[in-house]
Amino acid sequence: MADFNPKEKKILYRAFRITAAILIVMLAAALIFCMFDLPGLFSPDHPGENIVAERYIESGIEETGAVNFVAGMILDYRAFDTFGESNVLFAATICVMVLLLVQDQNKSRAHRKRSKKNGSVNSDQTTVSESQTQSEQLPESKAYYEDLRDEREIEPRLIKNDVILKTIAKFAVPFILMFGVYVILNGHLSPGGGFSGGAIVGSGFILASVAFGFDKMERFLNRKSAGIITFVSLLVYCLAKSYSFFTGANHLESGIPLGTPGAILSSGLILILNICVGFVVACTMYSFFSLMRRGKI
Amino acid sequence: MFEQIYNHFNDIVAAILFVIGFSNLLFQKNLIKKIIGLNIMDVAIYLLLASQGYISGRLAPILTDGSENAATYINPIPSGLVLTGIVVSVSVTALMLSMTIRLYRKYRTLDLDEILVKVRKEKEDKGEG
Q1: Higher pLDDT, A234 or B129
Q2: A111-125, A148-162, B91-105: least confident range
Q3: Which CATH number does the domain B2-128 belong to among 1.10.3210.10, 1.10.287.3510, 3.40.190.10, 1.10.230.10?
Q4: How distant is the Cα of B106 from the closest Cα of chain A, in angstroms?
Q5: What pLDDT sits at residue A146?
Q6: Chain B CA closest to residue A46
Q7: Chain B contact for A184 (CB, 8 A cutoff)
Q8: Closest CB to B80 among A31, A74, A91
Q9: What is the chain A residue with the closest CA to B103?
Q10: Closest CA–CA distance from residue A125 to any residue of chain B (Å)
């Protein structure tokens, strides 16, 4: 693009846009033409109604105890699938951490170990060369850290003057968190469950961290505690439901009784798995926001 | 012809949404808007998949009036499939956004053409020097 003069650039852009428009119209026509072959909304015998769906609905309550058939399906009949999904969220958190985590230069453990090992004799020379090699390893070095320092310093100044946000958050955050916990715990009785409830709790955390400052959130949700919560929840899920690796399609009975359908303490393992999934999703949502905002959880 | 459109209304809307999201990828120069286009394509797929479970005249798959007959409820399986898709979409969007943040910190622009120009210039400088 740098080799063309502006007139040629304009002509090239226009040609590209016209070709793209033609391609899009053709794609839309092809897709809509294919859609007519699918069974419609009002067709009498839909191929999706098969014995699997019948089994999930008709034996749903006696085998899983869940009044919400979809929750019984994803957390009991197909629980291994949901285990994979929680792992996907965990892996995404790890990848975003690899990309965006910034360690404070003075506090990183590797820095402390290296400065202790080198001792005090050649300390001046080695520390200068160390900081040089450290800053050379990061490609963006100086501008990168200045950027982050601006983000971390501008934010407290903005929040100190923001009265509306603080007042509304003081009223709203407890209700948001309470509603999220309600949706998680009632996953087997009404629409909801671990994923949606976890997203609600996560957004409550995000609002609290924006309104009250990250330092106050760090007291109970820092990197160590978020890591422990996520790991323990995934471990509980794994111990509960990964027997499918070894037994195939057969089911192992957990010792927990199914209870009366319609009560909160019913449906065996589904309540515990909902809570685990809710924890994972909430910690993941909050750590995505915190990593993108300021480079550490 | 119109009866066919009326019967497949959900599929056609999903196809149009998909094409709108795809055209975002082609026509927008800003990286963030391209990511939004990918998100729109994901949502179109969810609409197509979840609406395949709908059977007209039946209720949502939560126990109502104590009837455990499979003929009173819609098909619950496509809803479970869409749940997995939503989780995957969230993870992919988070990864794309974090890569955009790293690109911005290095090249100071969100315009894809300018980033490619700068990358090519860097390669030339490194090749010569």
Answers
A1: A234
A2: A111-125
A3: 1.10.287.3510
A4: 6
A5: 66
A6: B55
A7: no
A8: A74
A9: A140
A10: 29
Structure tokens at A54: 């019948």
Task: Answer whether A42 touches B (CB < 8 Å).
Answer: yes
**DSSP per residue over B66-112, as a string?**
T---TTSB---HHHHHHHHHHHHHHHHHHHHHHHHHHHHHHHS--BH
Six-digit token string for A184: 């998680």
Chain B positions touching A46 (Cβ under 8 A) are: 55, 75
Q: Where exactly are the structural domains of chain B?
A: 2-128
Q: What are phi and psi of B30, to 5 degrees?
A: -75, 140
**Among positive and negative, which fits the CA dihedral A260, A261, A263, A267?**
positive
User: What's the gap in Å between the CA of B48 and the closest CA on chain A?
Assistant: 10
If pLDDT is split at 50, 70 and 90, which confidence band does A127 have? very low
- Spatial separation of the C-alpha atoms in residues B26 and B14, rounded to whole Å: 19
ipTM: 0.89
pLDDT band at B12 (very low <50, low <70, confident <90, very high): very high
